[in-house]
Amino acid sequence: MSAGEEYAVLRAAGVSLVLDLVGDVPQVLHWGADLGELGPEDIAALRESGVPARVANSPETPRVLTVLPVERDSWSGLPGLEGHRGGTATTPRPETVGVRVEPGDGDAGGTVRIALREPVADLALAADVELEATGVLRVRWSVTAGARTPGTYDLGHLVALMPVPARATEVLDFSGRWSRERAPQRLPLVDGAHVREVRRGKPGLDSPYLLVAGTPGFAHRTGEVWAAHVAWSGDQRWIAQRLPEGAGAHAAVIGGGDLPRPGEVRLGPGETYVAPDVLFTWSDTGLDGLADRFHRRARTRRPRRAPQPLVLNTWEAVYFDHDLGRLGEIVDRAARVGVERIVLDDGWFRGRRDDTAGLGDWQIEADVWPDGLEPFVARVREAGMQFGLWFEPEMVNLDSDLARLHPEWLLAPSAGVGASFRNQYVLDVARPDAYAYLVESISKLVERYAIDYIKWDHNRELHEAVVRGGADGDRPGVRRQTLALYALLDELRERHPGLEIESCASGGGRVDLGILERTDRVWTSDCNDPVERQQIQRWSELLVPPELLGSHVGAARAHTTNRVTDLSFRLLTTAFAAPGIEWDLGACTDEELERLASWAAFVTSRRPLLHGGVRVHADLADDQALLHGTVSDDGAHALFAWVRLASSAGPQAARVPFPGLDRGRDYVVRVPDAFGPVAVHGQEPGWLARARGADGFRVPGAVLAGAGLTLPVLQPASGLALELTAR
Fold first, then answer.
1. Which helix (DSSP H) or strand (DSSP E) does residue 182 occupy?
2. How far apart (Å, rounded) are the C-alpha atoms in residues 564 and 344?
3. Which strand (E) or helix (H) includes residue 531?
């Protein structure tokens, strides 16, 4: 890190951020590959070499792109700040009043704190621009209304934008639906704005998730890429924008922020709005390079206190049929298999015999559990396992005591509650009395049963989410609901320091780095079909490390797709995430239980690798084949999966290089027997028989990484595990 009165340079993990502090507002001179140590003369050269040429019909003063671009700078794109005072003060003219540069830990990275005043609307703005040790850039903005100006400042938006160069010509982001989250979509970055707006009250099953701009044809292992993530669990705006005149010395911008509803952020004198963090990441080693930065960030920012336990969730085993005898048998069989945590899902609370009633009444259903949950919890504890419980605190059924007693607690218009999703409505968590009810109700159960883990669900979108019956009428409440959720999670964790929480939202509908600041894993998708799951997990792990992505082995016939798959493929798919089981073990054969036990012993013994290594993905021409793996930091140990999703017209036998290995080492390749038989089409290549033997198959790392192996032709919906150990 270096700094002077006119510049600041932050460096970490092969990344440089260079800020020019001369002018009304700081500018980004460079964000990307590390430029090395830069002194005043180097900064002057970087500044002068980036002044764009003036062309016809352009401003006399060359355009610049500041960290808060506005029209004053001849910027015609999305402004960094937008708002008004009663229809006036709409042309912000920010100017710097102070900059403080703080070194990072071990002098890696650092933070530039920028203070601005905006005299037109009488505002004070502040930005924290932090280059973290992992090379991830965190930007957080805030705005405070002047204390001397009467009335309110109505904020439209306050977004974080970063520049990308002209060589970034393609954009990748994501869409999806229930049971098919994180579906990638690519398009050219052309003049105009690629804007994604989320108006669901949560990121949604079609979340943009990660916005990536990159060089032509960028892939998992190749290309230079710049990415942005909005770390917020409510409404969002994402943007990649290119203008014909460019963006100062750059070609385009990427970024985003939250998306306040009209009238949602009205700042009185002295009041402050804090925008969510937007995280920016650069890599010159493709998407795997981006993912590695995010994974290292997650592992250092909130390290786990203990390994991620092997979970059994009861939902797909029993649904609402809560019978102690049946559940007790599942507990006994789970212990035999090697499960470490049992989660009792929906159906345990008052009035909850199906999904039409009871939601919000967080008391034990005495008709189903006459002795409370004590007998079941005791059985779980006696078997040596942890206990978890399902909640959906932000929602309510109208057929519930809570809704009948407190209709004013609904987050819905006074004129009517609107359409239901899954027979449920939204509870106004930001109401102090509703908030207190949830804290106390959940805490009583956590204390009574020493609950280790909560599966926290959120099964509907927030439509017409307004606070009912205020003195001035209904007011928008999405943002305050999101902040109240964060506060609720924070308070529960403070009260119960050992409690772990999973974020679930109809599967993967609330997966973002805002919620993961307060939870311990996410439920990746309601789909346990391994064919679908391979792709869902592939793209989910671009942002979230695998140990935080819940993935469970289900029954042979998937309840979401009706597809039947082999147990070996289901076990293999789950191994590369946070593994668990969502299957009626009481209906399993002894052979199936033995195979589950063998798999459980394998994945728990390999947790240091699977939950601490580097995820890698081969770039293959055949989109129905996948080769992905996890390699230890020292390159000495790896586990790969060779997967066939469906048949294709590609070559049936060809060498496939293995990414991420140390070319200077020799490796022994083995086929672990924990996953069971693999469905192979025709005859296996000869080396595979040796890999199945006790001594394995020795291959130089240069051959594995440079030339590759001829891999077997698998039947559709099949996968082969290969474990590699350096000699």
1. strand 180-188
2. 26
3. helix 530-540
- Contact call for residues 331 and 314 (beta carbons, < 8 A): no
Residue 368's pLDDT is: 96
Mean pLDDT of 406-423: 95
Residue-level pLDDT at 61? 84
Tokens of 109: 């990275």
110: left (phi over 0), alpha (psi -120 to 50) or beta: left
For 571, how many CA atoms within 13 A lie in the half-sphere containing its CB?
25
- The one-letter code for the residue type at 510 is R
| Residue range 311-413+423-608, CATH number | 3.20.20.70
Q: Give the Cα separation of 256 and 243 in Å (integer).
A: 17
Place of tokens 């009041």: 271
Write out the DSSP string of 211-227. Answer: EEEESTT--SSSS-EEE
Whole-number Cα distances in Å, 74 to 78, 103, 233: 12, 33, 33
| Candidates 526, 529, 584, 662; catalytic one | 526
Longest dimension (CA), the chain: 82
CB atoms within 10 A of CB 702: 14
Token digits for 14?
Answer: 């092969």
> Smallest Cα–Cα separation from 520: which of 543, 549, 540?
549
How many CA atoms lie less than 13 Å away from 697 in the CB half-sphere? Answer: 18
H/E element holding 483? helix 478-495
Contact assessment for residue 79 and residue 70, using Cβ atoms and an 8 Å cutoff: yes
205 to 180, 255, 344, 536: CA distances (angstroms) = 8, 20, 24, 11
CATH class name, domain 614-726: mainly beta
- Give me the CATH code for the 61-301 domain, please: 2.70.98.60
CA separation for the pair 661, 667 (Å, rounded): 9
Give the start-to-end residue ranges of the domains of the chain: 61-301, 311-413+423-608, 614-726
User: What are the residues whose beta carbons fall under 8 Å from the beta carbon of 199, sequence distance 6 or more?
Assistant: 235, 259
Going by pLDDT thresholds of 50, 70 and 90, the confidence category of residue 58 is confident
Average the pLDDT over 104-131 and give the result: 95
DSSP letters, 365-380, are -TTT-TTTTHHHHHHH
Six-digit token pair at 127? 């930005």
Q: Residue 538: what are its φ and ψ, rounded to 5°? A: -55, -45
Q: Taking Cα atoms as reference points, which of 538, 549, 447, 544 lies closest to residue 504?
A: 549
Q: Say which of 457, 520, 529, 662 is annotated catalytic.
A: 457
**Residue-level pLDDT at 275:** 98
Share of residues in the chain with pLDDT > 70 (%): 99
Q: Pinpoint the alpha helices (H) of 368-477.
A: 374-382, 401-405, 432-449
Report the SS3 class of residue 426. strand
What is the spatial distance between Cα 612 and Cα 311, in angstroms, rounded to a whole number? Answer: 19
Report the SS3 class of residue 625.
strand
The verdict on whether 277 is a catalytic residue reads no
Active-site annotation holds for 526: yes
Distance CA 275, CA 83 (A): 14
- The closest of 415, 409, 431, 403 to 473, measured between CA atoms, is 415
Write down the pLDDT at residue 4: 67
The count of C-alpha atoms lying within 13 angstroms of the C-alpha of 686, restricted to the half-sphere facing its C-beta, is 0
CB 147 within 8 A of CB 132: no
Neighbours of 597 (CB within 10 A): 16
